[in-house]
Amino acid sequence: MKPDIIVVTAAYGHTQIAALGGQSALLPIIQRAGADGVEIRRELLDDAALTDLPALGRAVAQHELHASYSVPDTLFCDGGEINPRITHYVEEARQLDAQRLKVALGDFTGALPRETLQALLADLPFQLTVENDQTEHGRLAPSVAFFTAVREADLPITMTFDMGNWRWTGEDADQAAQQLAAQVGYVHVKAAVPHQDSFRAIALDEADDHWRTLLQQLPAQVPRGIEFPLEGDDLTAVTRHYVSLLRNV
């Protein structure tokens, strides 16, 4: 069984998305490219779109796609408390009819508020997934500590394994895969190279083959998200190329 391929709208770049008229304008491109789903980014939604998420959800469904919802916020606030805005994001994901809600970890102090999380997750019609971001909180040690606690508490929270973000935290992605693969429910496929005093994501055809060997260390059946630059005169053709590539790796 081949994995679902999801196109992250941010892969097209903020400027291109704005020129096309917003994330909804990408849906025909993503559908024609043969993808299974789209990752809607909250930070790329204007106020009008945020107030009418059901309409965006219907548009996603009309294009025979399923939605993931990415929020640029964290599960935990500084000090280890659950972010009070999480319930708001959960409601937005419901309105979008998303299959998953993705957030970053934030300041996990080691104490898992099990009852609070159980209440949050009760009857949730989608998957809550936590990504390793590019901050100190997305490093390997806190990620391992959190997902170990989640597993011991038998909570249905999975990991979004961002293949490229380990470059930003200065850690070994292969080691991360070995320790976290069992918790992974979604993969952000990304290759990155040094750029000035940081890193930048690059298209897979421009990268070495490490992304292939890393991807093969992760669960083969979980959805794979395209989160590297999709650029060119024919966005449908470029997207189709990488949808096919990732479906068959």
Radius of gyration: 17 Å
The residue fraction in helices comes out at 25-40%
**Could you say which overall geometry the principal axes of the C-alpha atoms support?**
globular
Element string (H = helix, E = strand): EHHEHHEHEHEHEHHEEEHEH
Strand arrangement across the biggest beta sheet: 1-2-3-4-5-6-7-10
Draw up the topology in text.
Elements: E1 5-8, H1 14-20, H2 27-32, E2 37-41, H3 47-50, H4 53-62, E3 66-76, H5 86-96, E4 98-106, H6 114-121, E5 127-131, H7 140-153, E6 157-162, H8 165-169, H9 173-180, E7 184-189, E8 191-195, E9 198-202, H10 210-215, E10 224-226, H11 235-248
Parallel strand pairs: 1-2, 1-10, 2-3, 3-4, 4-5, 5-6, 6-7, 7-10
Antiparallel strand pairs: 8-9
Helix pairs in contact: 4-5
Summarize the structure.
This protein has 249 residues and is of the alpha/beta class. It is built from eleven helices and ten strands. It has helices at residues 14-20, 27-32, 47-50, 53-62, 86-96, 114-121, 140-153, 165-169, 173-180, 210-215, 235-248; strands at 5-8, 37-41, 66-76, 98-106, 127-131, 157-162, 184-189, 191-195, 198-202, 224-226.
